[in-house]
């Protein structure tokens, strides 16, 4: 089943529970981060160069994000 989104905000809202779950996981590991930071990292580093991503692909990228990758991103962003 193909699920299409009208815009990026609609997609963000749809995957927000996965972003919240990942944020909570990272918080338990000592990293204080927002859902938006995770989204921005993936948008800049992964999604920008990808085509034909499915909803499950996006959720998988969120859930498999490594703490080292997001820490490095946040350090460079600061």
Rg on CA atoms, Å:
12 Å
Shape: globular
> Number of helical runs?
4
Helix content: 55-70%
How many structural domains?
A: 1
Query: Which stretches are low in confidence, meaning pLDDT under 50 for 5 or more residues running?
Result: none
Proportion in β-strands? under 5%
Would you tell me the structural class of the helices and strands? mainly alpha
Number of strands: 0
First and last CA, distance? 40 Å
Mean pLDDT: 91
Major sheet description: none
Order of helices and strands: HHHH
Short description:
The chain is mainly α and 78 residues long. The chain has helices at residues 8-28, 35-45, 55-63, 67-77.
Q: What does this entry look like structurally?
A:
The protein is mostly helical and 78 residues long. The chain has helices spanning 8-28, 35-45, 55-63, 67-77. The protein has one domain. It has 4 helices and no strands. The longest helix is centred in the first third of the chain and has 21 residues, at 8-28.
């Amino acid at each position: 089943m193909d699920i299409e989104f009208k815009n990026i905000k609609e997609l963000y809202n749809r995957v927000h529970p996965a972003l919240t779950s990942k944020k909570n996981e990272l918080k338990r590991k000592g990293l204080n981060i927002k859902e938006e930071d995770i989204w921005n990292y993936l948008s800049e580093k992964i999604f920008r160069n990808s085509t034909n991503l499915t909803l499950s692909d996006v959720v998988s990228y969120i859930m498999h994000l490594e703490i080292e990758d997001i820490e490095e991103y946040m350090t460079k962003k600061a």
